[in-house]
Amino acid sequence: MKIILIMPGMGKKKNTSYVRTWQMEPLIIAQLASLTPDDVEIAFYDDRLEQIPYDEDCDLVGITVETYTARRAYYISSQFRKRGIPVVVGGYHPTLLPEEAGEYADAVVIGEAENVWNQILEDTKSKKLKKYYKEPLTSFAGFFPDRSVFAGKNYVKLNLIESARGCPFSCEFCSISEFYSSTYKTRPIEDITKEIQNIKGKRFFFIDDNLVADTKRAKQLFKAITPLKIKWVGQASLQIALDEKLLTIMKKSGCVGVLIGFESINKQNLEKMNKSWNQNIGKYEDLIKKIYKHGIGIYATFLVGYENDTTETIERTFKFAEKSKFLLAAFNHLLPFPGTSAYKRLEEEGRLLKKKWWLSDNYRYGDYAFKPYHHEPEELAKICEQSRKRFYSLPSILKRASNFRGNLQSPVIALIYLIQNLLAEKEVNKKMRIPLGEGLDDYENAK
Ligand code: B12
Ligand code: SF4
Fold first, then answer.
1. Could you give the percent of the chain with pLDDT greater than 90?
2. How does pLDDT run across 370-395, given as a tens digit for each residue?
3. Against a cut of 0.85, is the pTM above it?
4. β-pair partners for 89
5. For residue 3, which of 78, 75, 76, 88 has the smallest C-alpha distance?
6. Which ligand is nearest to the CA of 96?
7. Which residue has the CA at smallest separation from atom 3 of ligand 2?
């Protein structure tokens, strides 16, 4: 038996290459490979890096699908299905919209793969593939992704690793809280240290959505990885600033930076997002100072387009980001991801411009998918784009550079700060208005 696993791309503009910072190793593919019995042959194609051989024979195709890649994934699926090869899809998008996914695939995995993957392979062998598979993971122990599937592919040199899944919070715009129903499941710390030891590189990205959701466990994890002498980045909630001991241990364990979702500087917006805890814990400025004191840089993310956002508040958000001397910052506008509370609310308010924007012919990356409260959609999309470009302009890079505990914490980080920031403006141009699901077949010509 042979299976083909596919990581679809989002799309790209004609005659450009794929956005480089998005070309990271897809951990899910390594996870599926590790779950696959040895007697099953595996081929893996990453649409972002190479052409997909639609004529290759196999018994099953497995595709991982996010909302942004759904259009492309469904196209890829149709190419195999028209040759009679069954396709199974899984991931955030099919989980939150299983019926839609079921129209484009023979089988849909709702939720996690670990407890259903072997059954799917058995059912493929006996030609009894079911439409839906759902079996949540209860124990997250003993799983080790098989990264040998990435051999020969030119990925960004950063090792992705999982320490836990889910997040106990329920921000209204977030797919994670819907996917995991606001639960949080952790991997045994010995599994994580073992996995790190078996990887050659020393640079890691903990992909947990909130690495410090359980601070007691986070401290144990950081203590356990300290002797491994790695450098790492991760995503954390602002709560880390309240615990100096945690910050000390984090830094000692090799943390160089954290991505923090500040989302808004406006209290009412945070309330609407169900994220008021972000500001209830203290003043942003004081919390940021505490993090810098420990030599940890901050990648700050903001969500623009909530009810209380006007041109003036967005400008204040931008000024705040600049003044806070963040290493990097994202000014994304609210996007109604299917299945989230934000999607449902905007639908009820009659604000959705396109119900299935992710499948629309003319939706482009960076476009608004709902009618904003105080602007025209195009106007607000432009304001977001300009904020990103201004943040990564030379004057702003220089203004933010004098952050000696964050952006200049070491010569290597200083270099990364400079390179990442200088490249970011170009990347904003490359990302904006990417036609979803298009431009990928002619990859070879574009190189
Ligand atoms: C790492 C990461 C990235 C990396 C890239 C990763 C890569 N390999 O290329 C970077 C930082 C570049 C990135 C970029 C973006 N990301 Co991102 N990313 C993640 C993150 C943190 C981890 C993904 C991961 O590896 N998970 C680990 C694997 C093992 O788990 P999994 O993918 O959930 O898969 C499990 C199940 O879903 C299921 N499954 C999944 N696929 C399949 C397929 C089959 C066949 C089967 C059987 C099962 C199955 O089984 C798995 C194991 O149980 C997730 C959040 C998260 N915690 O998952 C966001 C996430 C996937 N990203 C998201 C977004 C929005 C983006 C961006 C659009 C952000 C932006 N505005 O620019 C871009 C898009 C890039 C692109 N698609 O080209 C959203 C997607 C939401 C949605 N509804 O689709 C997420 C969920 C974050 C969030 N908070 O909402 N991302
Ligand atoms: S804290 Fe982050 S991961 Fe958790 S629900 Fe909110 S946005 Fe999602």
1. 94
2. 999 999 999 999 999 999 999 999 99
3. yes
4. 63, 108
5. 88
6. 1
7. 209
